[in-house]
Amino acid sequence: MERVKSKTVRRLRRKAGVRKRVIGVPSRPRLTVFRSLKHIYAQVIDDLAGRTLVDASTSPTKGAGSAGSAGGNCAAAAGVGKTLAEKAKKAGITEVVFDRNGYAYHGRIKALADAARKGGLKF
């Protein structure tokens, strides 16, 4: 149990280090991701206004923002990235700053980022 707790604490410390430098502004908002064991969530945030501009996830309870059902794999993460890019284009967002939220850039996080890039987002 202690290992799980320290793993989360280490991620939060990495997250804090990244958040000191990464700020979403209206011209280039922040794309942040959160992954749980079952789902993956992504949102584009304007930090100056303090509001979420676009969101997508694999969670079925999320409602209009959901992109699929099985969220614990790379294919689902890629679907979320594609959906997020489409929604961002509709909202007039073309450039974002990527915030990996303390997670390592591989697996589901990388799949989401690559799909968002293919969908037209620049970061």
Number of helices, counting only DSSP H or I runs of 4 residues or more: 3
Average pLDDT, all residues: 88
- What is the percentage of strand-forming residues? 15-25%
Going by helix content, strand content and strand pairing, the class is alpha+beta
User: Strand tally, please?
Assistant: 4
The CATH topology is what? Nucleotidyltransferase, domain 5
How are strands sequenced across the largest beta sheet? 3-2-1-4
Order of helices and strands: HEEEHEH
Calculate Rg over CA atoms: 14 Å
The CATH class: Alpha Beta
Low-confidence stretches: none
Described by the principal axes of the CA atoms, the overall outline is globular
Largest sheet: 4 strands, mixed
Portion of residues within helices: 25-40%
Distance between the termini: 37 Å
* Number of structurally distinct domains: 1
Annotated CATH architecture: 2-Layer Sandwich
Short account of what is shown:
The protein is an alpha+beta fold and 123 residues long. The protein has three helices and four strands, in the order H-E-E-E-H-E-H.
Give an account of the 3D structure.
The chain is α+β, with helices and mostly antiparallel strands and 123 residues long. It has one domain: Nucleotidyltransferase, domain 5 (2-Layer Sandwich), CATH 3.30.420.100. The chain is 39% helix and 19% strand. The chain has helices at 2-21, 74-90, 108-118; strands at residues 30-35, 40-46, 51-57, 97-99. The protein has a four-stranded mixed beta sheet with strand order 3-2-1-4. Helix 2 (74-90) runs parallel beside helix 3 (108-118).
